[in-house]
Every structure is written in structure tokens, then in C-alpha cells.
Amino acid sequence: MTRSNLVLTSLLFFILKGVSCATFTFVNKCSYTVWPGILGNPVLDSTGFELANGNSRSFQAPAGWSGRFWGRTGCNFDSTGHGSCATADCGSGEVQCNGAGATPPATLAEFTLGSISGSATQDFYDVSLVDGYNLQMIVEVSGGSGDCRTTGCVDDLNRRCPTELMVEGGGGCRSACEAFGTPEYCCKGEFDSPSTCQPTAYSQVFKTACPRSYSYAYDDATSTFTCTDANYVITFCPSLPSGKVTKGLMRPTNGSESDPLKEFFSNSSLYADLAAGNSIGIDHFSLKLIFILFIIYFTHISFFGM
Prior knowledge:
The chain is α+β, with helices and mostly antiparallel strands. The protein has helices at residues 3-20, 176-180, 183-186, 201-209, 260-266, 270-276, 280-304, and strands at residues 22-28, 35-41, 56-61, 66-72, 76-77, 83-84, 108-112, 123-128, 137-145, 151-153, 225-236.
């Protein structure tokens, strides 16, 4: 190959690479600082950073990039950047994770970007609770084509967490695998296949609250999404999105009000059941409808004496 052809080939490669890259934007809507962690190949511009309340930061990833993002909370780093985090710590002892992953429990956003050529041009993405949960997170798509749906976990699972899975202090909810370590919960050994590894009562707690998130290892059918030529926004502690993306995402239950009606609705799994297609959701709906009619009836009696 001549020198001119080599230069031309290199230029075309970088042009195609630039066109096919994806932008990841992190947004912090929590009332506290979050320290996102990044693990992927190839390595992006950062492997961990501080993101204050209300702030955002963006990174570009090349075609074919594969990795995961998560949010660390309760971090304490000194002036030299050394320290640790209360949840989802990566164990590096620094703000940068330097190739280390999150210590469970951690809410994870996972991506495999499509290549610039060949058949694998789609991006695959999901939000996983297989390693447990530590904070609310959603992934929203900007641009792109295909079934580019919003996914994630809007519900505050720390408030729903079964006692035996709860992290001391309430900062996270462990997976049953981490808590008990048995093959049926970890999908290992004789349970390491889609036919033998089935949902458990514990994974159903996660799935009911967050129907579009992975709740156990083989929860692919309702938890993996695809898109082509898109950019992505990862939001920590999101408010409930409006419009078409609300279906399948749970309204957060982090309000402090003691209104019994509000608690009755916010603590129910109705929205999740309907989104996931569970028949029990219809029963809940009927009960709620009866409850509402009951209140209306007696309110009517109180006002009109009928």
C-alpha cells in the first residue's frame, strides 16, 4: 500500500469512527453528590468522577465499545483524590475506578455499542439489578432508530427491600445471590440455564418495582433493548418521565408526606404489574377501584345526607 493510500485509509477510518460514536451524558438529579463509575473497553476519558446535584457531564465512546456505568454514593475523598464510598465502591481507593467494577449492591447501566460495519450495528443496553440496587437510575435515548425505549428503575427499592436483603443503614438492597450465595439464586451449577434458572420471590420484588430492569441472570426478554446510531442520557434519581416512556417505569416512593391515599397508591405494585403484563395487577386495580368508589360514596353521604 502506498503512503497516500495509507493516509487516506486512516482518515476514512477516523471519519467513520467519529460518525459512529455514541455520546453518554450523565445527569444528577439526586439531592446529594453522586460519583459515577465507569468500566469498559476501550477506556473512556474517565473511569470515575464527581457529579454534584444538578450537574451533568458527557463522554464519547467509539463504535463497538462495551461497558457499564453506576453511581457511587456516600463517598469521602481527600484533596489528593483518595478515599472510598458507602455504596457501589469500586475498591480502587480513588475517585478513578481504574478498571475495577462496582462492589454490590449497585444499580448498573450496561451497554454494547454496534460496530461500524458488519451485522452487529445495533446498540444493546439495559439497566441491571442482578448485582442489587443502590440508587434510582434511568437510561433515555436521544436520536437513533429502532425500539429505542427508556429503561431503568425509578422506584426507590431501598424502601421496598426485604429485611434479609437490606444493607445496614438502608443505603442499598442486596441481590438474593449476594445475600445467600446458593446456586438457585445465583444461576450457577445445575441452575445455569434459562430453563433451570427461574424467577424467585426475591427477584420478583425487584421486577415488580422496576419491570424493565434485569432482576435475575436470564431475565432477557423484558430487560434488553436495542437502538441504532443513538446517544444516551443516564440520569440518577430521575423524576417520573412524561408521555410514552412512563409505561413500565415505576413512580418513585420517596415522598415524606403521610397522606394515606398517596401512600396507598405509591406503595402498590399496580403500575409495575400492568406494565409487566401480570394478571395480579388487574386484581389490584379492581380493589383500588372499589376503594375509590367507597370513598366517593361516603363523601357524597357526608355532604348531601343521602
